[in-house]
C-alpha cells in the first residue's frame, strides 16, 4: 500500500521535471571564478579581469553556462575584495572598467553569462559613505550601525553588546572621529550597513541597476543572512546574544548563540525587493532573465524563504549548501539520500534545485572528502536535477594548497593563532589555478604569486588533464555532454540509497532513455540490483560514463539486476531501450 510519504515523494519527483520553456538558469552549469587566483595577465602575481576574458573559451570548453565572479571592485583588500570602497568602480589590481566591458562583450559572444558578486551587508571603512558617516554628515549619519557603548563602574567604555565578529573579536569597533562604536559582523574594516535606513536600501538598489546597465546577467548576493540585526529598543540599545556553553573564549564567533545578528525576519524581503529590480530591468530592456544567487548559511527552512513567498518571488538560486554543511567524510549513502531529498521536498512548489559542493571559503572537495571522490562529487552535482555550481579548479580535482603560517593572508586565520590557523584559513582553497606544468602553473608570467602555487600542480593541471582520457577534467567534460540529453537536463529525478555504501540517482523522461548514476562512496567492491531499487526499470543498461576507477568500458552492456562497482567508483548508465 502506498504510504503518505511515498505519495509526497512521488509528487516531488514529478515536479522536478523541467519543460522546454524553462529559463536558462534552471539547468545551467555555473562556475565560480575567484579572480585573484584564476589567471594573471600583467605579471603582478594577482589574477585579473583580462585573465578571466582570456579563459572564457576554457569555460566554453568545459560546458559552462554562467560564471559568478568573486568581487573585483575598488577595495583595500582587507578581505580580498569583500571590503568594497566603491561599489561602481573596478579595482586597478584587477584592471579597468574597460577591461570589465571587454570581458562582458567577449562573454556575450561566447554565450557565457556573467554574474557579479554583490556585497550588500557591509562596505570598506575606506568607502566614502563610511567616512562621511563617521564624520556625522547628516545624509550619511545612519548609513551604518552606530552606538556609543556603555561606561562601566570602573569608568571604562565597553561595546554596546557581546556580539562577536565572524573573524573573531568584538563585532564593535570604536571610531575616534565619531566617538562611537560601529558594528562590523566581519572584519573591522567591513562596517555593516544599516538596512533599516531606506536611503541605504535605495543606494544598494542603485548599485544593482548600475551593473545591470553594464550587462551583467545577475548577482551572487554575499552574506545576506547578516543584512539585518535586531531592531534597537526605544533607547537605541541592542540586546546581548545568549551564550553558547561550548566555548569560554569571548572572541570566538561561536561564543554567542546568533539570534539577533543573523536570520532576522525582514531579510528575505530585501531579496524580494531586489528581484523586483531585476524584473523591472528586464521588462524595460529585454534580454534573458536576470538572476539572484544568495549566500545564506541558515537553517534549511529559512533558506527556503529566499525562494519567495505566496506573493513575491525571491532568488532563483538560494545556494544549497546542504552537501557542504552536513555531509562528512564518513557519511553513508542514506545520509546523502536524506540531504538531497530533504532539499527537494522542502523546496517550494514550482522552484528549482541547485547543488554546490565547494567555494572560496571551504577546503577543496578532494581535501575534505578524499582525492578518490572527486569524480563522484562532480558526477553527483552534474546529474542531479537542477543547476550545478562548480568552484574553479574542482573540475581538475585540485586539492588544498599548502600555505604556511608566514604566507597566510586570510583575515579569518590571521585574526587567530598559529596553533590552529589551518582550521580557519581559507587560503588553501584559493591558491592559483593550475593551467599548465610551467612555472607557477601557467597562472602568471611574473615572478611571484599572491598565494603559493600548490605543490602538485604538475600532476593536476588543465593541459595535462586534457590529454588523459579519464582525467577529472575529461570526466567533467563528458558530464556536460550528458547534460545536453533531455532526460538529464529536464527529466524527473529519483534519489535512493541502495545500501549504506551505494547511492543511486535515476533520471527519466517519457519517450527517452533512463539514466542512472551510481556512487560507491567507500572502498569496498559493491554489487547492486537496480531492479529492486527502482520500479519499472528496463532490463539492461549501457555504461555511458566511466571514470579511472572503472574496469568496464563505455558501451558495455550490463543487467540492471547486477551492477558491480569498484571502490569509490561512480558511473552513469543509460538504458538500452527508451521508456
Ligand atoms: C562571504 C564570502 O564568501 C566571504 O569570502 C567573505 O569573507 C564574507 N562573506 C564577508 O563578505
UniProtKB/TrEMBL annotation:
Keywords: Glycoprotein, Glycosidase, Hydrolase, Signal. It is an enzyme of class 3 (hydrolase). One of its GO terms (molecular function) is alpha-1,4-glucosidase activity. CDD domains: AmyAc_maltase. Residues 32-430 form the Glycosyl hydrolase family 13 catalytic domain. SUPFAM superfamilies: (Trans)glycosidases. One of its GO terms (biological process) is carbohydrate metabolic process. It catalyses: Hydrolysis of terminal, non-reducing (1->4)-linked alpha-D-glucose residues with release of alpha-D-glucose. Its EC number is 3.2.1.20. Residues 1-20 form the signal peptide. Gene3D superfamilies: Glycosidases (3.20.20.80), Golgi alpha-mannosidase II (2.60.40.1180), Oligo-1,6-glucosidase, Domain 2 (3.90.400.10). InterPro entries: GH (IPR017853), GH13_cat_dom (IPR006047), Glyco_hydro_b (IPR013780), O16G_dom_2 (IPR045857). PANTHER family: ALPHA-AMYLASE FAMILY MEMBER, MALTASE A2-RELATED. Belongs to the glycosyl hydrolase 13 family. This is alpha-glucosidase. It comes from Drosophila willistoni.
Amino acid at each position: 500500500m502506498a504510504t503518505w510519504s511515498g505519495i509526497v515523494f512521488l509528487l516531488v519527483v514529478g515536479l522536478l521535471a523541467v519543460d522546454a520553456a524553462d529559463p536558462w538558469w534552471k539547468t545551467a552549469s555555473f562556475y565560480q571564478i575567484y579572480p585573484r587566483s584564476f589567471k594573471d595577465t600583467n605579471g603582478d602575481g594577482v589574477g585579473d579581469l583580462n585573465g578571466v576574458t582570456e579563459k572564457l573559451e576554457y569555460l566554453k570548453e568545459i560546458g559552462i553556462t554562467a560564471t559568478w565572479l568573486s568581487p573585483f571592485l575598488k577595495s583595500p583588500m582587507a578581505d580580498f575584495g569583500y571590503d568594497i570602497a566603491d561599489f561602481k568602480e573596478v579595482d586597478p589590481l584587477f584592471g579597468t572598467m574597460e577591461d570589465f566591458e571587454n570581458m562582458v562583450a567577449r562573454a556575450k559572444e561566447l554565450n557565457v553569462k556573467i554574474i557579479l558578486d554583490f556585497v550588500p551587508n557591509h562596505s570598506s571603512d575606506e568607502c566614502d559613505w563610511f567616512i562621511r558617516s563617521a564624520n556625522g554628515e547628516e545624509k550619511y549619519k545612519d548609513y551604518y550601525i552606530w552606538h556609543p557603548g556603555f561606561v562601566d563602574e570602573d569608568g571604562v567604555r565597553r561595546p554596546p553588546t557581546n556580539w562577536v565578529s565572524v573573524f573573531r573579536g568584538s563585532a564593535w569597533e570604536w571610531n575616534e572621529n565619531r566617538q562611537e562604536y560601529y558594528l562590523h559582523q566581519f572584519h573591522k574594516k567591513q562596517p555593516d550597513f544599516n538596512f533599516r535606513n531606506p536611503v541605504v536600501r535605495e543606494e544598494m538598489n542603485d548599485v544593482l541597476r548600475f551593473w545591470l546597465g553594464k550587462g551583467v546577467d545577475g548577482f551572487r548576493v554575499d552574506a545576506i543572512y547578516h543584512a539585518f540585526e535586531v531592531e534597537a529598543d526605544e533607547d537605541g540599545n541592542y540586546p546581548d546574544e545568549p551564550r553558547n556553553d561550548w566555548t569560554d573564549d569571548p572572541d570566538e564567533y561561536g561564543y554567542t548563540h546568533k539570534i539577533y545578528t543573523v536570520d532576522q525576519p525582514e531579510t528575505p524581503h530585501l531579496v524580494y525587493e531586489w528581484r523586483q529590480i531585476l524584473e523591472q530591468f528586464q521588462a524595460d530592456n529585454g534580454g534573458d532573465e536576470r538572476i539572484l544567487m544568495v549566500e545564506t548559511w541558515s537553517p534549511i527552512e529559512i533558506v527556503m524563504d529566499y525562494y519567495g513567498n505566496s506573493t513575491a518571488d525571491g532568488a532563483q538560486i538560494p545556494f544549497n549548501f546542504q552537501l557542504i554543511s552536513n555531509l562528512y567524510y564518513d557519511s553513508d549513502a542514506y545520509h546523502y539520500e536524506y540531504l538531497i531529498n530533504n532539499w527537494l521536498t522542502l523546496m517550494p512548489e514550482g522552484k528549482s534545485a541547485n547543488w554546490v559542493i565547494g567555494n572560496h571559503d571551504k577546503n577543496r572537495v578532494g581535501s575534505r572528502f578524499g582525492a578518490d571522490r572527486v569524480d563522484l562529487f562532480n558526477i553527483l552535482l552534474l546529474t542531479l536535477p537542477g543547476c550545478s555550481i562548480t568552484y574553479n579548479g574542482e573540475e581538475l580535482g585540485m586539492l588544498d594548497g599548502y600555505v604556511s603560517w608566514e604566507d597566510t593572508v586570510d583575515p579569518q586565520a590571521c585574526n587567530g593563532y598559529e596553533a590552529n590557523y589551518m582550521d580557519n584559513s581559507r587560503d588553501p582553497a584559493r591558491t592559483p589555478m593550475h593551467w599548465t606544468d610551467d612555472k607557477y602553473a601557467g597562472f602568471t608570467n611574473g615572478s611571484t604569486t599572491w598565494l603559493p602555487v600548490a605543490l602538485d600542480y604538475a600532476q593536476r593541471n588543465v593541459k595535462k588533464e586534457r590529454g588523459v582520457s579519464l582525467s577529472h577534467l575529461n570526466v567533467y567534460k563528458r558530464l556536460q555532454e550528458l547534460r545536453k540529453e533531455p532526460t538529464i537536463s529536464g527529466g524527473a529525478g529519483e534519489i535512493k540509497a541502495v545500501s549504506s555504501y551505494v547511492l543511486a540517482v535515476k533520471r527519466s523522461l517519457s519517450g527517452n532513455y533512463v539514466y542512472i548514476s551510481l556512487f560507491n562512496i567507500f572502498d569496498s567492491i559493491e554489487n547492486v540490483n537496480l531492479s529492486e531499487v527502482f520500479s519499472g526499470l528496463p532490463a539492461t543498461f549501457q555504461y555511458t560514463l566511466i571514470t579511472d576507477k572503472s574496469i568496464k568500458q563505455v558501451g558495455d552492456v550490463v543487467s540492471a539486476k547486477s551492477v558491480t562497482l569498484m571502490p569509490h567508483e561512480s558511473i552513469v548508465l543509460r538504458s538500452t531501450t527508451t521508456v
